[in-house]
Each structure stands twice: as C-alpha cells, then as structure tokens.
C-alpha cells in the first residue's frame, strides 16, 4: 500500500507479463448510503475520464480502468519519490527551489486549463505534489478535479483542503482556473514560510528574507477575490520568471522550464477514446534559447484520413499524411526562423474528414546573449587598430564581433568597430598623402603657383 484516504487506497502493483510497476488505485465503498455510493463511483469514473485524456510530463498517465468483484480500479504511472508535504516537514525550501517548483506547476496548470474543456484541479497542495529523485514535481490525485462549465453559479459540492482551498470552494461561487492559482500561491507561501496555511485559513503573513517582488506576487496569488489574483497560470509563471531573472534567485545553469523540453510519453488508454482530434489540443514547448529546437509528441485521436499543414515556417509536423486510427504525431519547432525574444504561437491544421479544430503550439523565444568573449576581443582589436594600417584587418573582425551579439545589444560593440574604422581611414588618408607628396612634381607645382 502506498497510501489511503476516505474514498480508496493506492497500491504498488507489478505487471506479471511485463517487468514494470504501476500505481493501482482502488475505490472502497464503505458507505451504506446509496446516494453517496453513486456519487463516489461517479467521481472515480470522472477522474479516470479526465486523466485518460491528458498527456503532460508533470501528470501521471492512466493506462487502464476496470471493475472487478464490485470494485473500481485505476491503473496509472507509479511516481517514485517524496511528497512535498514530507519534504516541508524537514524545513522550508530556498527561494530558488520555490521559484523552480512554482514555474513547473504553472506549466502543468497552463496545460490543464488550456484543454478544450478546461480541467480545474481544485486540490493543489503539498500532499498532492510528488518530487522525483531528479527534483521534478508530479501533480497527483485528481479525485475532486472537475471539467469547467461556463455559466454555473457555484460548485455542486464544497470540496478542498482547508488552507489551500479558495473561498469560492465553500459555496461562495464557482471554482475556475483562478481557484488553482490560489492553491498554488498558498503552496508556495508554505514552501517559503514553513507555516501550514491549514492552521489559519485565508490568513497569510508577509514573507521575510525573500525578494520583495516575490513576496508581493505570492500574496497576490492568495487574494480572497478571484479578480485580484493572477488571471492565468501563464501570468503567474511569467511573474515568477521575472523575479528569477531580476533577483538572480537561481544559478544561471538552472532550467526553470525543463519540463517543457522533455518529450511526453504517448498514453495508452484502454477502451474508446473520449473525443476526436489532437490530444493534447495545445502543446507548450516552454522557453527556448534563440537558435534552439524542440520536439513534442501527441496523438491524433479517432479514425482520420487527410493531410496536416502548419501555418508557420518555424513549425513542422510529421507525418504530413495520416490514414488510420489514433495516429502518433510529432511537432518540431526551429527558433532560427523566429525573431529574438517574445512569445509565439502557431497552428497545425487537419485537412480531411472529420473536421477538427487545429492544434495550437506555443513557445517563448529567449533573446541571444552577448558572447562573453565579445568585449575583451573588441578592446584587444581596437588597440591594434591604432597601429598604422593594422585596422584593415582588425576593423572587419570587430564588425563581425558586433554582429555576433543580439541586435538590441550591439551598441557598445558597434561603437568600438566604428572607432576602429576611423583609425583605419585616418591612417589610409595619411598614407595617401605621403605617397602623393613623394610623387609630386614640385617644379610643375611651383610653376603652376607662379613661383
């Protein structure tokens, strides 16, 4: 047994046919109330349906769902590691660790909220985040997750964990994507302060010994009114990344969006797939340095026959022709066809039957940095350009050095290159003058002056 709760238990199971371990979740019916039993079964089936349609490196895959002896079972990826709750029992996380966790959880929420039918997790907390041996966070236990339905006045049931659950989860409104952002803000506050918000729900003291900007954005994340919080996981992630860049909270070698660059495994789901179309419907490739490339895998669900077409030069898909059922696809992004810096999105269209909504691919391109050798090399070359005629060699090298830097950061390098060009032209002018003086016919020159 890996764990147990009010609705069931989770076991570590070994496939007797293949040498692989899985997590087996069992629904336990320990109630005599028929309405409660039906509600529990519906929630369990809903969890299976939600997870079967998801494919993200921070989410476990569901590979089977079945009933036996009157009990319901889910077979899903076994995630080996420690829960964040267990880690926090040893003490708070550092600022860098917290930002890295927050960024990767935002990416998972971006994926969930970006589904054709947005998925609201509703129970994000340290106990539902498992940290693998490599430090990658995995979001587990979708027991009370729900598909968002526009226009509902409030949730059917008030569910959530005190301290991490937003006010609207207590019958004050309908939970939406901002509900998950509140829970994430509460989780990050716990990571930095070491204080369990369940002890004083809805009360978050200002954080000490952290960048003030980080303190402000986390307190914004736990605002009681949804309209006062971040309005999307993307906004929350970009705010965290901004703190990282400006405060130097993480080492330069850290990959704050490493999950986006990993190739997600294609889920194998038993039974009929829930919908036709691209699965997932939106692919986020995270942040890439300009000049880099990325690849992601997905599935084109249903019986499909037709062609695939990208509307962007930087985005390619393979195969271009599909004719089959549940076809595995790969999309490639090449940032060399993009401008430096900024977020971009492209679409992959399916031309055939049935008519399907396009696949959206998103990424953020990071601007190039000035090479570390650029300024020392320019100073060395400009000193040589002072020597007579050496600038004919150093000036082209200096312009090449300036060209190696991003367009927005070439100012200082370009200035030194033009100074070198000035010395080169000056020495060239002096040289032409000397040659002219040596070859001048002085008698004719003086005669022309009337002397």
Mean pLDDT: 78
Let me know the number of strands.
17
| Annotated CATH topology of the largest domain | Transferase(Phosphotransferase), domain 1
Please give the largest β-sheet.
Answer: 7 strands, mixed
H and E string: EEEHEEEHHEEEEHHHEEEEEEEHHHH
- Structural class call reads alpha+beta
Shape label: elongated
> Helical region count?
10
CATH architecture of the largest domain: Orthogonal Bundle
**CATH homology-level superfamily of the largest domain:** Transferase(Phosphotransferase) domain 1
Helix content: 25-40%
- Work out the radius of gyration: 30 Å
Question: What's the quick description here?
Answer:
The protein is built from ten helices and 17 strands.
Description:
- The protein is α+β, with helices and mostly antiparallel strands.
- The chain folds into three domains: 82-251, Transferase(Phosphotransferase), domain 1; 275-366, Immunoglobulin-like (Sandwich); 374-438, no CATH class.
- 32% of the residues lie in helices and 24% in strands.
- It has ten helices and 17 strands.
- Strand 16 (342-353) and strand 17 form a beta hairpin.
- Helix 4 (177-193) packs across helix 5 (212-221).
- The relative contact order is 0.08.
- Mean pLDDT is 78; it is low at 147-156 and 249-274.
SSE topology sketch:
Layout: E1 3-4, E2 8-14, E3 21-27, H1 34-52, E4 62-68, E5 71-77, E6 82-83, H2 84-88, H3 95-113, E7 119-120, E8 129-131, E9 137-139, E10 146-147, H4 177-193, H5 212-221, H6 233-247, E11 277-279, E12 282-289, E13 293-310, E14 315-318, E15 321-334, E16 342-353, E17 359-366, H7 374-385, H8 391-403, H9 411-438, H10 442-448
